[in-house]
């Protein structure tokens, strides 16, 4: 899985950005002949040249959990539009980007370019470089994935640059009803477990009407749904070898500590357990922690990692209202809903369009709400607090370059 | 001419923005079928829907000199991408936009839309509305043409919105040499006179080597070139009826006062004269004022209106260097060069690409450096201080909307 998301999927997203940028740049012809009729006189005729010029230097600030996947779109979008790029990896995820930069430099040299078009600026938590680099007047493009605090700082302070940010979000799932209860539980169990919930698309809050839901097997109470979800996650991760492959390690100490802290409450529906992994004694692998939400304040902040809440709502209309406000105020990259009612699905899609979040309907098979496919799914919408850009669309690439025109009579 | 630039040319630019936006929005299909092979099992199949959603409310802040031409691109770009638009005209140019808004509302009603999708917010110099509107949280797009001071204020303060600005600039022409002296002088004379230099594309500073230039008729000294230009402008505007048609009225009192003030110096090469117009006794029509630059500080700020400088440079290399710094520091929308040397033209184009300004070579006929044609010429580049966007390109339209996606198995 590290291979998948770190390698081909990251390269997919990089290539996707290249395609968008290439298509956009080539919409303007390099040369055009222009004629203006002048009545009986000869027409005015001009030859016009259009040159794509770069913005300046691009700065890519990597994150720790998916160093390549979250960096490649910005890296390649800036490169293909002619900008040099400085890659500043997260101190906790240097190697994947160091390898990337090394290969970029090799390829640039092989093709006769100056290898310094791509450089690495590794720093440490003690002596961070990001702010200094971000404020350099030569830096005209910044791509960042990470905390809302630093993302907002970049947007507010690096005013000489165009800043593309992906920040924190709180993803939600609404369960209204289902005609495939088993499929729904299986899908959600995998969703919550994959990469230990360390994806920016993993749902955190799962809304279930307090009166329960209708299924193909009849009514199920809130507690029955919550218990089924807990059992599903527990069983999926019952075998240590399989669990460690699905979960992967917990990346940061802060996440580990958060699991410990939140696991102490009296609202635990499924406790997190440590998973041993043969040959990796120091690996910090934890199964997901599932909690029952107490009040709204308990679940509205992002708790990055494998911590999720089942949240009782009055009814699905209430769930929709809460999620709408949550996306508006706290951002979200993914949103899933389960319902056997087309009316409910339509209302959910309307809401998703109002607040700008991608929506997945009734995922009960091999597609998970936290997965997006390059060339088919947009990652983030760019219009809620979780991100100010989408991967990838025209808006993500079209301002990374400009066009300078010349014209002369011929 | 008011008809031309105010009517069809403005509509051209509006339509151009619509075309760019429509093409960009329709690059993403409304519905797509997605299949993922699963080895021997059935493929995963999904149906995905992509919905274009607006940003919110667009605010168009009009300018006084070309109220329609400078407003239509933003107005129509925001409208076609689904945003409602508030039009706030300049207090000195309300009527053209009031008529525009009235027609927009009629058309919206005819087509079954709410006419309030387009509204007019006229204000006065005493009780301005622009800042209040610009900071409204619902306003997500702002298009502005006007002063650098207010443009920068918008960029710095209306952080909830995407802000597209066209601000002040200092356009330059370099004369290196020519094989059509008469054509060059005729072209420049018209360029300086058209609309009394009240176009954001009119050149202000004309650089001529202090040692003079080579022409098809042999060498001409700096003074001879300057005198020919003065004579050209004087003759073009010698007939009052023709002059008033080419010049049009001076729009603002500030411009009139500036002409008076700068006309008092001892560096006047061509004095400005008032032009009477039959039937319009109060019309303030002035022929262009041409000055000889004394030191750099005399010509580096924008002196909006029919005031231009002939500037002696050491040589053309010096001219290029001065213009490069001028564009970088003070912005420019147009740049013209006259040279019989391909080497000089190439160097000028390289410089134009470095600083991001459109360049016109050897205009000696019926095309003028201050004119751009929609669907063929970009207006501004968006990468020097004169404007942060170009009319029109993908970058100008592609972030005015977002795409929200839904997906389900089929």
UniProtKB/TrEMBL annotation, chains A, B:
Residues 51-327 form the Aldehyde dehydrogenase domain. One of its GO terms (molecular function) is L-glutamate gamma-semialdehyde dehydrogenase activity. InterPro entries: Ald_DH/histidinol_DH (IPR016161), Ald_DH_C (IPR016163), Ald_DH_N (IPR016162), Aldehyde_DH_dom (IPR015590), PaaN_2 (IPR011975), Proline_metab_enzyme (IPR050485). Its EC number is 1.2.1.3. The keyword Zinc does not apply. The keyword NAD applies. One of its GO terms (cellular component) is cytoplasmic side of plasma membrane. Keywords: NAD, Oxidoreductase. One of its GO terms (biological process) is L-proline catabolic process to L-glutamate. This is Phenylacetic acid degradation protein PaaN2, ring-opening aldehyde dehydrogenase. It comes from hydrothermal vent metagenome.
């Amino acid at each position: 899985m590290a291979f998948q998301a770190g390698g081909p999927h990251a390269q997919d997203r990089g290539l996707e950005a290249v395609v968008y940028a290439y298509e956009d740049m080539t919409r303007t012809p390099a040369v055009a002949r222009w004629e203006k009729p002048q009545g009986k006189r000869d027409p005015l005729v001009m030859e016009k040249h259009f040159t794509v010029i770069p913005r300046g230097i691009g700065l890519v600030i990597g994150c720790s959990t998916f160093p390549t996947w979250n960096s490649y779109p910005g890296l390649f979008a800036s490169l293909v539009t002619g900008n040099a790029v400085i890659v500043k990896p997260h101190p906790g995820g240097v190697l994947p980007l160091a390898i990337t930069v090394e290969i970029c430099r090799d390829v640039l040299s092989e093709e006769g370019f100056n290898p310094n078009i791509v450089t690495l600026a590794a720093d440490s938590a003690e002596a961070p470089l990001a702010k200094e680099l971000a404020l350099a007047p030569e830096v005209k493009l910044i791509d960042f994935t990470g905390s809302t605090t630093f993302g907002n700082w970049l947007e507010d302070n690096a005013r000489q640059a165009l800043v593309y940010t992906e920040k924190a979000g709180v993803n939600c799932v609404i369960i209204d009803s289902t005609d495939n209860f088993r499929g729904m539980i299986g899908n959600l169990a995998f969703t919550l477990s994959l990469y230990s919930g360390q994806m920016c698309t993993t749902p955190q809050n799962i809304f279930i009407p307090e009166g329960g839901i209708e299924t193909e097997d009849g009514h199920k109470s809130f507690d029955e749904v919550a218990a089924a979800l807990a059992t599903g996650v527990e069983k999926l991760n019952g075998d240590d070898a399989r669990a460690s492959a699905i979960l992967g390690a917990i990346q940061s100490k802060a996440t580990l500590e958060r699991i410990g802290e939140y696991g102490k409450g009296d609202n635990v529906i499924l406790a997190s357990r440590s998973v041993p992994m043969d040959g990796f004694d120091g690996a910090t692998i934890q199964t997901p922690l599932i909690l029952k939400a107490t009040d709204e304040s308990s679940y509205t902040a992002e708790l990055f990692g494998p911590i999720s809440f089942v949240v009782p709502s009055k009814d699905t209309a209430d769930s929709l209202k809460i999620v709408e406000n949550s996306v508006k105020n706290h951002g979200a990259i993914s949103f899933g809903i389960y319902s056997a009612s087309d009316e409910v699905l339509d209302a959910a899609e309307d809401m998703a369009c109002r607040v700008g979040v991608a929506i997945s309907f009734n995922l009960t098979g091999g597609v998970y709400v936290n997965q997006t496919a390059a060339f088919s799914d947009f990652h983030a919408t760019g219009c809620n607090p979780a991100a100010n850009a989408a991967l990838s669309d025209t808006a993500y690439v079209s301002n990374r370059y400009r066009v300078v025109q010349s014209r002369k009579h011929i």
